[in-house]
């Protein structure tokens, strides 16, 4: 099966296409992509993984055509951002 592994930075987006055996997990796709080798500063947090914007765990099984997404940490707490906007 073919899946994509994507990670977006403010200035660029990385997308790796990998071929995996059926029944492979999210973490296996990330490891097979080479993303962690190419981006050593990337901190992989299991709470910031998704497939097509739906949160997943590292051990979840993938399907053919899935897109694994690694999300960046938030720069501002959403509640704080709403408070700032309401204060203007």
Kindly summarize this structure in a few lines.
With 88 residues, this protein is of the alpha+beta class. The protein is built from three helices and five strands.
Mind explaining what this structure looks like?
The protein is of the alpha+beta class. It is built from 3 helices and 5 strands, in the order ββααβββα. The chain has helices at residues 26-33, 35-38, 78-87; strands spanning 2-8, 13-19, 49-51, 54-55, 67-70. The protein is elongated, with a radius of gyration of 15 Å. It starts with a strand and ends with a helix.
- Which strand order do you get reading across the main beta sheet? 2-1-5-3-4
The end-to-end distance, rounded to whole angstroms, is: 50 Å
Q: Share of helix among residues? A: 25-40%
Beta-strand share of residues? 25-35%
Largest sheet: 5 strands, mixed
The number of helices is 3
Number of strands: 5
What average pLDDT do the residues reach? 91
* Overall outline: elongated
> Which structural class do the helices and strands define?
alpha+beta
